[in-house]
Design goal:
The protein has 2 helices and 3 strands. The chain is an alpha+beta fold. The chain has one domain (2-59). It has a 3-stranded mixed beta sheet with strand order 2-1-3, with no helix packed on it. The structure holds zinc ion (ZN).
């Protein structure tokens, strides 16, 4: 059995979130790490400054000889 959990949830919300069952196959219990919509918003907000700060540098024309 494969469960999808939010890898960012403990960090942002203080408790883990299991989003749902990905696969019922198998008798063991496995986890696959993803990110839930709530944490995507938190993640984007947190990193927006960082990403926006990087963009001008990325747009700087680079001359290749
Ligand atoms: Zn989450």
């Amino acid at each position: 059995m494969l469960l999808s959990r939010c890898a960012w949830h403990p960090r942002y919300h203080g408790y883990p979130l299991v989003e749902g069952v990905v696969s019922w196959a198998g008798w063991g219990l496995k986890f696959t790490d993803g990110i839930c919509p709530a944490c995507v918003i938190r993640f984007r907000t947190e990193y927006r400054d960082f990403i926006e700060r990087r963009q001008p540098a990325r747009e700087t024309p680079r001359r290749v000889a």
